[in-house]
Design brief:
It is built from 14 helices and 15 strands. The protein has about 425 residues and is of the alpha/beta class. It has a domain of about 100 residues. The protein is globular. The structure holds pyridoxal-5'-phosphate. Pyridoxal-5'-phosphate binds next to β5, β6 and β14.
């Protein structure tokens, strides 16, 4: 088996060193430069060499997943940044200032995450922790606030653009551990980012090992959210740190807790390589389970056939499809966004054509301030066409698995665009 070389990544400043970059037209290069000064850009050698088909970029989902496209900024923002870059009188800090202004207009923290879900202990906010749903806490390790490659749609984009006020991350003292010890209602810890699997085994262990202590017996399930399985599978196959990573996974499983590797996979092409198949096998060998999730995105996977093939392949390879999300209202939402009606149609057409084993996947789901809202169906009650919505997860646990109704609106892309049906109100927090 031949696997790719050592990890190398390219940023907006070094992208011209990527061998394939010279295949791009001047126009494409300019778009990458302009948009890449606003939204975070990073691509690695594996994604560039193994996942992108450079002969057909027009139709390549992985290219659009990792390389900026002109339409990812509004015309107005694009022109503003283009002028800033072209105007040679501008200093780098002028360009930074303009980038910050544009970012602020792109709703960097949807659903008010920066304030709404950060818990406190003895009246101090715990940095790098989010506790929104009773049984699950999210940990954002400070060393895991980057990824092997950045996805252009990522709702966490603000984490990567260097403005500290836009970041979540744990502190040196790891005060999250004290919080988790005290909160016995928490059964699940989701280590997230960025990508926690950007960390090496030694650093990851600093976050995992406290969870295995005796006072943490209420923590039953550890989840690790990661894109690395598809964007840097070699991590689980043949890097010097591979045995340590796999041993750490095994240690979690041997401690009696469940380890769920939450793999972000947006397209079946990401899980179609030999090295990825080996990585899946090696992770499963540790006793961890791999569950998968992805938003449904225009230009990337807005086709039921893509989902049918993706979920079928995942099940065949031993993974469990978990969530289909609706793209959040942040960053380049206008580029990736789909109507709720279309998202539902894609989900329905796909789910009807896969094995029952793949129908574990729930969605399309919107992560709103109140909870995860699933678009269940479009229906008609008393001659009124409506969306049937339900809570998959909710800040108020009483709302889980309850339904509510919205007036049918073919253009709505998010809960905020919908109006309640039958003169009722939407559930509140
Ligand atoms: C989705 C999510 C969870 C996990 O919810 P599950 O239903 O257990 O998968 C936890 N916290 C936040 C903030 C989430 O968005």
């Amino acid at each position: 088996m031949t696997f790719c070389q050592k990890f190398k990544f390219y940023t907006i400043k070094t992208i011209d060193q990527l061998p394939q970059y010279k295949l791009l037209s001047d126009e494409t290069k300019q778009s990458i430069q302009v948009v890449g000064h606003v939204l975070p850009f990073r691509v690695n050698n594996y994604v560039a060499e193994k996942l992108i088909n450079w002969q057909d970029l027009e139709n390549d989902p992985i290219f659009k997943l990792t390389f900026m496209q002109k339409d990812m900024l509004s015309e107005h923002h694009y022109e503003k940044m283009n002028e800033a870059i072209e105007n040679k009188l501008n200093t780098p800090s002028d360009i930074q200032g303009i980038a910050s202004e544009i970012r602020a207009e792109l709703n960097p923290h949807p659903a008010n995450q920066l304030e709404a879900n950060v818990p406190s202990l003895n009246n101090f906010a715990i940095p790098g922790l989010q506790h929104k749903y009773r049984e699950t806490a999210l940990v954002f390790p400070s060393q895991g606030q980057q990824c092997h490659s950045y996805c252009t749609f990522c709702f966490r984009w603000a984490q990567f653009v260097g403005d500290p006020s836009l970041k979540f991350a744990t502190d040196q003292a790891k005060s999250f551990v004290a919080y988790l010890r005290e909160h016995k209602e928490i059964t699940d810890v989701l280590i997230t980012g960025g990508d926690p699997m950007f960390m090496n085994a030694k650093t990851l262990a600093l976050y995992v090992e406290p969870l295995l202590e005796k006072e943490m017996s209420h923590i039953q399930n550890i989840r690790i959210g990661s894109k690395s399985l598809s964007f840097w599978p070699r991590k689980y196959v043949n890097e010097p740190d591979t045995p340590n990573i796999l041993a750490l996974f095994k240690k979690i499983v041997d401690s009696g807790k469940h380890l769920a590797f939450m793999a972000h996979v947006n397209h079946w092409k990401e899980i179609n390589t030999e090295v990825c198949h080996q990585a899946i096998e090696n992770i499963r060998q540790t006793g961890a389970q791999i569950r998968t999730q992805s938003p449904v995105l225009k230009h990337i996977n807005d086709d039921p056939e893509v989902w049918i093939k993706m979920w079928s392949e995942q099940v065949r390879l031993g993974m469990i499809p978990y969530y289909m999300f609706v793209e959040r209202d942040t960053g380049p939402k206008h580029y990736f966004g789909l109507s709720l009606e279309r998202a539902l149609e894609i989900y329905q057409l796909a789910i009807r054509n896969v094995s029952g084993l793949a129908r574990t996947v729930r969605g399309p789901s919107m992560s709103t301030t109140v909870g995860k809202v699933c678009v269940e169906s479009i229906s008609k009650i008393n001659d009124e066409k409506i969306f049937v919505l339900s809570f998959l997860q909710a800040r108020n646990p009483e709302l889980v698995k309850t339904s509510f109704f919205a007036k049918y609106d073919p253009s709505a892309q998010w809960l905020d665009d919908l109006r309640p049906a039958f003169g009722e109100e939407f559930p509140h927090i």
